[in-house]
Amino acid sequence: MCGIAGYIGKKQAAPIILDGLSRLEYRGYDSAGIAVFDGEKIRMQKATGRLRILEEMTQHGATLPGVAGIGHTRWATHGSPSDVNAHPHMNEENSIAVVHNGIIENYAQLKQKLQQKGYKFASETDTEVLVHMLTEYYHGDPLEAIEKVMHRVEGSYALGILFLDHPHHIYAARKDSPLIIGESGEGRFIASDVPAILQYTRSVYYMENEEIACLSHAHTRFFNVDGEAIQKDPVTIDWDIHAAEKGGFEYFMLKEIYEQPRAIRDTISPRIKNGAIDLSEIQISDDEWKAFRKITIVACGSAYHSGVTGRYVLEDLARIPTEVDLASEYRYRNPIYDPDTLVIIVSQSGETADSLAALRDARSHGCKVLAIVNVVGSSIAREADAVFYTWAGPEIAVATTKAYSCQIAAFYLLALKLASLRAAITPERFRTLLDALVCLPGQIEGLLSQKEKIQFFANHYLATEHIFFIGRGIDYALCLEASLKLKEISYIHSEAYAAGELKHGTISLMENGTLVIAVATQDSLYPKTVSNIVEVKSRGAFVMALTTLQHQEMEKCADYVLYIPETEAPFMGSLAIIPLQLFAYYVSLGRGLDVDKPRNLAKSVTVE
Ligand code: AGP
Fold first, then answer.
1. Residues 6+ away with beta carbon under 8 Å from 324
2. Atom 2 of ligand 1, residue of closest alpha carbon
3. Range 450-594 has CATH code 3.30.300.130
4. Which of 90, 288, 357, 489 is the most exposed place for a label (fewest CB within 10 A)?
5. pLDDT of res. 506
6. CA of 414 to the centre of ligand 1 (A)
7. Helix (H, G, I), strand (E, B) or coil at 56
């Protein structure tokens, strides 16, 4: 995610802001910038790359004198990493400066209207529309301008704003992206997260949605989006700095598991407009979509697992032949390329060597390549013909969670888009599926509240040497990911197995006490999965089943049952993976391992 830091008070602002941004570096970014009021004008400096570059350019802030300013570390979403796309953004008159964390979902329409009014855009960012809207609505009263913008903008934002006419104030506003206000004897602060200001103050205000703050060196006033003053109470932060970087979570992995509702919402919401799937930002026309006769998904690790789910939903809903392949295998099996095939490369980092090589191979044989990527401007994103960004934000833990969940959400959107274009499902079925899709983030939030039950179960299996995950169909795809999560952070051997395949050999490994986790969310396959549970139990296995709330009878045949809420069958994986991510996390935690940095692993495998 982007990081915001701002200060107004008795001290020089720039060094405080740069220090605050340095404490937000863990959030991941690709450029940085700062704007300070120097007594006459707003002066700004921006730089692509590490914060150190900006620090050197400004001599740690010495070249930007002034006691009021805002700063930003940018994680690119709209527009590649560059100086011009870095924040802050200023209007042509250099009278308003804005830093933004979040996604403006209706920025394209807003940009078009502003351009028709004659506003010139310098960057590719969604944020820049905010600067020109504030300019349009500003007639001397910053609050009035901010309120009008908030009433017209859709999406998520945490904002820091400077108005040249009001040099003794900085302004902040928030919707869905976190923003806090700090206060101390030296002044007032705005920040995306606690670490940025913890060394100056432990007294913070958490801004709520659609609140505005006006900070002077000695006072902070809060308003709602209708301009009415509101009273807020400060909170005292008792975390240490390391805990604060993880938002109070013990590890980034748990923080990122909890970020999944927001990440999925950010990935799907901007692509659902007026009851339809809008993928217009992807450089593939509807006619091209219709012309594809086959899809080949190529990836590694968890990204490959998301592709296994992708294949199920694409074939089930869009009725388009789909294959999925490990990138390290695909590029060496001399695949048969067909120009009517769409090759989809999935990658969180966008730098995985095998996946990048597969992309180049497919393109060299005339195939169109779509990349589903989380890192904007990464190699795979740049070399693909078209890019579908997952907006999970930076993922710090080596074991992926939120990026994987956003990848499967991307496949849901693609499957619904293609199903609609190919008339493979009825409009009623499309509507039902779309309604279920938008409910997923809320259902995941509900599942996350069950963490104690999962931690309890996990703590009974810390010493286990072998764990089997079994399921059928999409449940099997899910088992692949759940098994990898457990292996990579707990170092326990585990296997994912198609439940119907066990009897063809592997069931010989079942003995008294073998732990089997059976996933049974697909109603059409439920009876058969239950029979597989009976098979392994009759050979002594201990079975933890994961099923939906309507199957309480599962308690008659499994030893322990975890329930998930109902959703449409193709989307069950998004819910079932949550308890299994938590299971892996708590087993690793219980074994005293470094959950975020497992042995032998790297976050991005840039070598073959
Ligand atoms: C997943 O938890 C692992 N970190 C690993 O399997 C990862 O998914 C794989 O290396 C692919 O990485 P990518 O998505 O960045 O291409």
1. 296, 297, 298, 299, 304, 307, 308, 310, 311
2. 399
3. no
4. 288
5. 92
6. 21
7. helix
